[in-house]
Design brief:
Layout: E1 13-17, E2 24-26, E3 34-44, E4 55-69, H1 77-80, E5 84-89, E6 92-97, E7 110-116, E8 127-139, E9 149-156, E10 166-167
Antiparallel strand pairs: 1-2, 1-7, 3-4, 4-9, 5-6, 7-8, 8-9, 8-10
Length: 175
């Protein structure tokens, strides 16, 4: 088989989270958007074969996307951090970040789409988490050496069909 260097992909991406008026687009990142899948397995053994593994079964699959968001926009924080709320009044806005203890992240789950900049308009290159909730942490360095980063991790949860990740155009249907 001949090598096809055109199939080597590199470069940054944007992430769209949600739809319609609630959609947030993460366009400025520092450190790159990182997609991870993690599959857990259980080795199957029998008494008759001792410690020899006779099969291996999938016990779960988790998908996450790390987004080191570099734009400082406090009005976005409540949209991506469960337990945060924006208060708008005379003189501007502020965000109250509360403990969030006991809040369900699943109740905030939305679609997430990763679009490589080189293929921003080609869904064949997109990656979709059909249902993802946000885990958000803030890491703001106040110095001349580092940018203030809002670390957003989107974790996929199974949709009604058990799908946690789609590689390629999610509108394609089986014939």
């Amino acid at each position: 088989m001949a090598q096809d260097f055109k199939k080597i992909e590199i470069g940054p991406a944007i992430v769209e989270y949600g739809t319609g008026a609630d959609k947030i687009t993460f366009e400025t990142t520092i450190g790159g958007v990182v997609l991870n899948t993690e599959t857990t397995y259980r080795e199957q053994k029998t008494d008759q074969t001792g410690e020899t593994v006779v099969d291996k079964r999938i016990t779960g699959r988790n998908v996450s996307v790390q987004i080191p968001f570099a734009e400082y926009q406090i009005d976005i924080i409540p949209k991506i951090m469960t337990g945060a709320e924006i208060v708008t009044g005379t003189g501007g806005s502020k965000v109250l970040i509360k403990t969030g203890v006991g809040l369900s992240l699943l109740s905030t789950a939305k679609i997430a789409v990763i679009k490589p900049l080189a293929h921003k308009n080609d869904p064949d290159f997109w990656t979709t988490l059909p249902l993802a909730y946000s885990e958000t942490d803030i890491s703001y360095s106040y110095n001349n050496e580092n940018e203030r980063i809002t670390n957003v991790t989107l974790r996929s949860t199974p949709d009604e069909d058990g799908v946690v990740l789609i590689l390629g155009d999610d509108l394609i249907t089986a014939v």
